Amino acid sequence: MLAPRSHPPCFRGGLVRLAALTLAVTGLTGCADKPTVQSSDSMRTGPGVTADKITVAALTDLTGPYAPLGRGVTQAQQLYFKRFNESGGACGRTVELVVRDHGYDVRKAVTAYAEVAPHAAAIPQLIGSSITTALRSRIESDRVLTVPQAWAHTLLGSKYVQIIGTTYDVDMINGVEFLAKEHGLGAGDKIGHLYLQGDYGDSAVTGSRWAARELGMKLVEHEIRPTDNDMTPAVTAFRRAGVKAVLVSVGPLQASSLVGVSAAKGLNVPFVASNSAFAEQLLDTPVGPYLEKDFYILSAVAPPSASIEGIRQVARDYRKTYRGQPVDLSVIAGYGAAVTVGEALKKACSMRDFSREGIVAAHRSNPQFNAGLGGPAMDYSRWTVPSTRSAYVLKPDRDKLGGLKIHRQPVTSPLAEKYTPPS
Q: What is the pLDDT of residue 50?
């Protein structure tokens, strides 16, 4: 699998195309019917809820550039809801996960949303920052709980959109702190940052710029296009500037080129990457040993190799159900997102309110959410800030399940604690 973050797809198209898509979605919102609320046996219900079933929707990528991510997330969520139903569901209702493939195409995603969202009580999977941005006004108009596989800080601020874990900017702030604490970087030192154009890179560099200013470091930025695959110009620029470390907010293939070219040209520095920059398959390439040497990944999600019973159980069940499929971070992230929605449904059941607003209220009532998969607790009661500022530091290891091991347990750096994401 060569895909981002359990890979948050975040590329953004041109302004004209994005404006047109925004208008299209706005128009779609304007003509949409408002969700209706019905009562049944003292239970308030809404779209996607019947006497015996709750329908939820996944808008994923199964045929586009993030198909490996979409497959892992979707299969993990199918596994979770199967277990959820076997344990009794919510108020006697089983959950059906309806899956639509958008191929990481915004127009297809808009069409898929229009097809399934009117009949869904919640959306536990929406792959893509740009896609989430295009659909955001419709999501808010429909008042439907939505969990994107995307982590740009620009997605904060919506009661109905739940980012799970840290945002890209917070990851980079924690990364700069990690370099200062563990690798001795300080005021006056130069740090490179290789990042993609678009929501992903824009969010990440927002954090690195802020952290570098706070610590008196100098940030050497190098932005690339999503289609760029040779990182030689970036390595050349970083060597010329004399950077002592490099932050990495690109895709796995670009990260592989960065590390390989750096090794060839003698740029021997630590690399600290967004979760999007790693894929287990890279360990079987010539660059694998260099990744294991001094490459670190920030993740609010514990790796499949973690000695956490919840993760061990997910890994066992996943391998049994989907034989031969990789168990990587996308599986854990997808499962965790499904747990988030499943627990909201259970709480809504206890509140006797399966309307969309009832499900959102149930979800937002939890300031210390724990999915049973390790990692920091999530504060779901606020939506203008990340649900956590803590992240694991992971390290590639070909001998570990998922190709990653824990290098440092989750901590919130003092730097990240004082940071306020820009609105």
A: 97
Q: What local confidence, expressed as pLDDT, does residue 411 receive?
A: 79
Q: In the numeric block, which tokens belong to residue 61?
A: 């990528």
361-380: b (≥16 Cβ within 10 Å) or e: bbbbebeebebebbbbebbb
> What's the pLDDT tens digit per position in 193-231?
999 998 999 999 999 999 999 999 999 999 999 889 999
Residues 37 and 162 in one domain: yes
**Same domain, yes or no: 142 and 21:** yes
CA distance 333 to 356: 23
Helix (H, G, I), strand (E, B) or coil at 3: coil
Residues 117 and 173 in one domain: no
Contacts (Cβ under 8 Å, ≥6 apart) of 222 = 192, 193, 194, 195, 233, 234, 237, 238
145 and 189 housed in the same domain: no
Residue pair 175/169 in contact by the 8 Å Cβ criterion: no
Residues 54 and 77 in one domain: yes
Indicate the number of domains in the chain: 2
C-alpha angle 208/210/216, rounded to 5°? 95
Residue 324 has pLDDT above 70, yes or no: yes
CA torsion sign for 136, 139, 143, 148 is: negative
Quick one: 119 and 24 in the same domain?
A: yes
* Domain shared by 115 and 83, yes or no: yes
- With cut-offs at 50, 70 and 90, classify the pLDDT of residue 40: low
Domain enclosing residue 358, as ranges? 15-166+307-364
Which residue from 123, 136, 118, 126 is spatially nearest to 22, judged by alpha carbons? 136
- What does the alpha-carbon distance between residue 69 and residue 193 come to, in Å, rounded to a whole number? 24
* Residues ≥6 apart with Cβ < 8 Å to 167: 151, 152, 153, 155, 156, 203, 207, 386, 421
Q: Are residues 331 and 268 in the same domain?
A: no
Return the H-helix or E-strand segment holding 139.
helix 129-142
What confidence tier does 27 reach under pLDDT thresholds 50, 70, 90? very low
Phi-psi region of 125 (alpha: psi -120 to 50; beta: other; left: phi over 0): beta
What CATH number has the domain bearing residue 241?
3.40.50.2300
